Input
Amino acid sequence: MDCFVYVLGTAAGRRPMTYVGWTTDVARRLARHNAGAGARSTRGRQWVLLHVEQFASKPEAMSREWHLKRDRTFRKRLCESLVTENQR
Output
């Protein structure tokens, strides 16, 4: 079963934010986040997909998710691209 690690971004609020997670269906998961049925920290915001990686197994995806959650530089660069796009 393929698993995906995704990074969501939002420019709503005082500052841009990211959220990192894993799933087997990225489109369904994004829809749930935007419907307010996702993680508590994602409720009340409109999210866009910034980055996706595919893995062959759940443990691989969860390991990558763990690393991405700690890589603030990578997520900050993704957020900067989101802010730049919103300013156009």
In short: The longest strand covers residues 3-10. The radius of gyration is 13 Å. DSSP finds three helices and three strands in the chain.
